[in-house]
Amino acid sequence: MPDTVTLAVTRYRPEKESEPTVQNYEVPFRKDWVVLDALNHIKDKLDGSLSYRWSCRMGVCGSCGMMVNGTPKLTCATFLSSFLPGPVRVEPLRYFPVVRDLVVDISDFMRKLKKVKPWLIRANDKPLSDGEHLQTPEQLDNYKRFSMCINCTLCYAACPVYGLEPSFIGPAAIALAQRYNRDSRDEGWAQRMEIVSDPDGMWQCTFVGECTKACPKDVDPAGAIQQYKLSGVADWLKSLF
Amino acid sequence: MEISSCDVLIVGGGGAGLRAAIAAVEAIPQLRVAVISKVYPMRSHTVSAEGGAAAVIKPADSLDEHAYDTISGGDWLCDQDAVEAFVKEAPAEMLQLEHWGCPWSREPDGHIAVRPFGGMKVERTWFAADKTGFHMLHTLFQTTLKYESIQRYDECFVTKLLVDDGRCQGVVAVELATGKILAITAKAVILATGGCGRVFPFTTNANIKNGDGMALAYRAGAPLKDMEFVQYHPTGLPFTGILITEAARAEGGWLLNKDGYRYLQDYDLGKPEPKPVLRSMELGPRDRLSQAFVKEQEKGRTLEGPYGHYVHLDIRHLGAKVIDRKLPFVRELCLKYQNIDPVKEMIPVRPVVHYMMGGISTDLHGATPLRGLFAAGEAACVSINGANRLGSNSLTECLVFGARAGKAAAAFASNSMPEPGRAVFAQARDEQNRLENDLLGKTDGSGGKERISTLREEMARITEASAGIYRSGAVLERAAANLRTLQERFGNVVLDDHAYTFNTELTSALELSYMLDLAEAIVHSALARTESRGSHQRTDFPVRDDRKFLAHSLAFRTPDGTPRIDYLPVTITRWPPGKRVYGK
Predict the structure, then answer these.
(1) What is the helix (H) or strand (E) element at residue A43, kind and residue range?
(2) Which listed site, A174, A203, B314, B317, has its alpha carbon 20 to 30 Å from B19?
(3) Which residue in A106, A119, A125 is closest to B101 by CB distance?
């Protein structure tokens, strides 16, 4: 085991420089350190000017996604030891505009999330006094997987279609639409279909499957998109007769 | 400086803040409601809550049982009128979340399922596997997206409350992406910024839990209530502080010392049974379990690793099937962050700071003594948590009191009141000057250059040593003096980063200064309470003293920055103070 490891970190400070640069930092190597621990060591001890996002350090808040040696990763769940002897390359998430250093602008993703109407839609709201909507464990399992998305946007950084065509609504947003569509309490399928089947929607996906590989929560956005396409075709067939 | 305005401004976009936002727009739809948060709302720390949320729904349960478990769990420091309102409104709030789409775990027939939890006589914890907070937060956030009248200021860090004419009239904030200073005026402000676990070194709390709202209120003259009551969760992972949910014990997990012995039986918590028994052994309350750990350590019966002493949480006997169905996140966390598989190995755990019972003093509607200022969730202290919060009450508290504060703030904001005057904007300009010149622009300190992380580490060492699971007068007095010194040294902090764009060192400095204020409030409140109650255990005053201390502490900030401690009587309705009995 080495004593130290080098992190090659992409820097970009728009007030000072017009192009990103790479800065190397030597940090102690510890077996139980994740990449985020190394970044925190840099920030605390070596260079307070490095900017990045993080919060929960337990893989659920979705803040700390970055490219680590070219792959989109949650840095809180990526051990340094997987990249020995280094250097470990840390870059901002691919395909997003960079605000500064390792911080990317996700406002486009936030707009897309809202666009798919990710809330329960019902023709008639049931009054609270009537109690809960019944939903069996099997019905819950039917959408559960798609409800696990933490909005970390790793799937966008993995998606070559999004890289070429930023208007593509993208994996996480479609998976979220599908999370509500498959919920036995929801009646909003038709409204969402209109949005998801528009030209920037699911038909852009060429089923590369990179999104599902990148997902740290096993959500399977590629599967959601395929389901959506199948139901879209069924819908179109029905409309013919 | 960019100036904007709204009617109700909510600081914090976690469970309490988002619930408040929806309650405010539903109460008065024409109000302009805004949520300002230093992170995108779905990053808020509510997301990390695992086990569940308590509300009476099953026929075998009753509101009085929930109230009693809460009040006895809180060692009779809860305000009982607040607890009664809380348990009564809890079921409808939880149902409301179900109607908004929260994926609650279910019984085979499709009804809501509940699980047992520590300190409870009857099972009443609603759960969404072991990612309850995550599902609640995303459900709330996604639901807010359908309300066009809820505006958001994402990734904007609030640095000051604007107070004029005895009324809170808005905030000053830094827009992180640009470094632009914002002055946002509002008729009512709700602080829903969560707790301040990061004041301590070992905590389950996320990096963002710096007590921003508590410090903002405190600096604006509102008192902080019961700050000496800090909840340690008995089962955190040693290095990271990652929480292993109480549900692991509720499903039948055991706490074992280095000899493989279920040591809780030695601490008046009942007899070991193979199956979990409510309010007994591993399902005793959090304060008592954390205290038992310290006693066990003193007896030399804990294990020692690179991050200090620990014991084992053993869930192997539950089997892979139960673990994967009921505790999938526990397994995931252990595998990904501790590199162990709880199906085959025991989990190393130690007590870690988890929750602040104390907070901004509010009434039953979330109103603080400062007009126009409201608070809800962990940032607030109503108080329903008393001297020790009952597990799975905090998520429910976010909903019940978030909704109450949202409604009350909306009603307040619908009154006619004068527009913010020149004094308000003068304050905002002074704040801009402080941020840009005293912090961002400063390149040299008169007393040398201090690093943020050095001061933060020293602060955490002081709080852990003095205001941890056991406290004493002498140590607390020393801690108070040392914190004063740190406050002075903070004046010499010089940033490496002088840029406006996404300057996270500036926010770290501001967070540290908030935490130093709160550390002082905690230590002084602990020093003044010369009794032992719930999570506040004084080795020099080991007994509960109802004659003197059936009272909430109130910490007021004095002009020199130190707190002044005052007291407010506890409201008792139907449950006179009694003995906390577990394991019988």
Answers:
(1) none
(2) A174
(3) A119
Instruction: Say if residue B444's pLDDT is above 80.
Output: no
Is pLDDT of B161 > 80?
yes
How many other CB atoms are found less than 10 A from the CB of residue B322? 14
Nearest C-alpha neighbor of B129 from the set B44, B49, B234: B49
Q: Of the candidates A99, A125, A137, which has its C-beta nearest B501's C-beta? A: A99
The pLDDT, as a whole number, for residue B303 is 97
pLDDT the model gives residue A32:
87
Q: Over the stretch B77-89, which tens digit does the pLDDT of each residue have?
A: 999 999 999 999 9
Query: Which of A101, A117, A120 to mutate: most B Cβ within 10 Å?
Result: A120
Does residue A60 register a pLDDT over 80? yes
| Packing angle, helices B452-467 and B473-490, rounded to 10 | 170
Phi-psi region of A53 (alpha: psi -120 to 50; beta: other; left: phi over 0): beta
Give me the residues paired with residue A74 across strands. Answer: A65
HEC assignment per residue over A184-210? CCCCCHHHHHHHHCCCCCHHHCCCCCH
Residues B136, B373: Cα–Cα separation, whole Å: 26
Question: What is the model's pLDDT at position A241?
Answer: 64
Residue B411 near residue B27 (C-beta atoms within 8 A): yes
Residues B113 and B102 sit within 8 Å (Cβ to Cβ)? no
pLDDT digits (tens, 9 = 90+) for B351-410: 999 999 999 999 999 999 999 999 999 999 999 999 999 999 999 999 999 999 999 999
Tell me how far CA of residue B158 lies from CA of B91, B183, B318, B472, in angstroms: 33, 10, 46, 35
Closest CA to B371 of B167, B576, B136: B167
Q: What is the mean pLDDT of residues B317-343?
A: 92
Residue B17 near residue B47 (C-beta atoms within 8 A): no
User: CA–CA distance from B124 to each of B113, B288, B465 (Å)?
Assistant: 9, 21, 36
Reported ipTM: the value is 0.97
Helices (H), A43-199: 107-115, 137-144, 154-158, 160-164, 171-181, 189-196
Is residue B55 within 8 Å of residue B397, measured between CB atoms?
A: no
B152 token code pair: 């958001």
Q: Please state whether beta strands B2-11 and B33-37 pair in parallel, antiparallel, or not at all (unpaired).
A: parallel
Residue with tokens 């929750």: B355
Query: Does position A207 have pLDDT exceeding 90, yes or no?
Result: no
Q: Give A-chain residues touching B508 at CB under 8 angstroms.
A: 48
Integer Cα distance of A198 and A202 in angstroms:
8
- Burial of A1 by CB count in 10 Å (0-12 exposed, 13-18 middle, 19+ buried)? exposed
Both tokens assigned to A188:
């909003």
Cβ separation B47–A56 shorter than 8 A: yes
Q: What pTM does this model have?
A: 0.97
Task: Answer whether B505 sits within 8 Å of A32, measured CB to CB.
Answer: no
Residue B206 contacts A where some CB pair is shorter than 8 Å: yes
Q: Are B485 and B516 in contact (CB under 8 A)?
A: no
Tell me the CA distances in angstroms from B178 to A49, A99, B155, B157, B470, one per residue in order.
15, 9, 10, 12, 45
